[in-house]
Amino acid sequence: MPDTVRPQPSRMGIGALLRHLQPRFPDLTASKVRFLEDQGLVHPQRTASGYRKYSEEDVERLSTVLSLQQERYLPLRVIRERLDRGEDPAADSEPQQAASSEVVTAGIEAGEPAPVSSARYSLRELAARSGTEVTVLRELLAQGLLVEREGAFDEHALAVAVAVGRLGAYGIEPRHLRVLRGASERVVALVEGSISPLRIRRDPATRQKAVQRAREIAALCLSVMSAAVHTQVDDTVRSFGPPDPDGGRP
């Protein structure tokens, strides 16, 4: 009796992969999928012409990675090592509390500043809350993008840590963010110049007025910067032309 030929498992291209996963992960892009491949988190087959083809196991693994990033804020290195060892990558991790990481992440997506609170974190607590590795946080400290006051970090520091951790998924490292330090210093200079006349008087009412003015000016400057950046990014995206359903490249 002749041997039966087993059908080959079906595989999908990167365009089909995005259409399959984007309903759950709307910000997923072909570039992010390729970055996760570069980090050893997914291993698609390559056709003779070099195109990526993803199996059902690849799709399931990628979905797991994205879920752990989104819900548990685990570093990619930790996820990869646990998956490669065949361990449950979600073991010993809990979803972040809404009062910290989820709220901060929502604020980042909305372009809002970090909420003001009395929460204070050590460096390791900040790493655990944000899902960003301690080595990355130390680099942010050295560059002045992360500020430690009286041996602790506040919600503003948490917002920075969360954002930088998410940027890492796109291949953007702390060293690439030095330009943001210069931009923030120029905004602060505008704020300080505006409130400097109020420093002459020391009464509580004037002090409160200075605080309110400083925060309002900072918020308005951030609104202008956000709108300007989004406008230029929209122009850049439009220059790409119509989208390629197969991801634009092998």
TrEMBL record:
- Any transmembrane segments, and where? none
The record ties this protein, via InterPro entries, to: DNA-bd_dom_put_sf, MerR-type_HTH_dom, MerR_fam
Alphabetically sorted, this entry's keywords are:
DNA-binding
HTH merR-type domain: which residues? 27-85
Superkingdom field: Bacteria
Q: Name one Pfam family in it.
A: MerR_1
What would be an example GO MF term here?
A: DNA binding
- Give the PANTHER family listed for this entry: HTH MERR-TYPE DOMAIN-CONTAINING PROTEIN (PTHR30204:SF89), REDOX-CYCLING DRUG-SENSING TRANSCRIPTIONAL ACTIVATOR SOXR (PTHR30204)
Q: What is this protein called?
A: MerR family transcriptional regulator
Q: Give the lineage.
A: Bacteria, Bacillati, Actinomycetota, Actinomycetes, Micrococcales
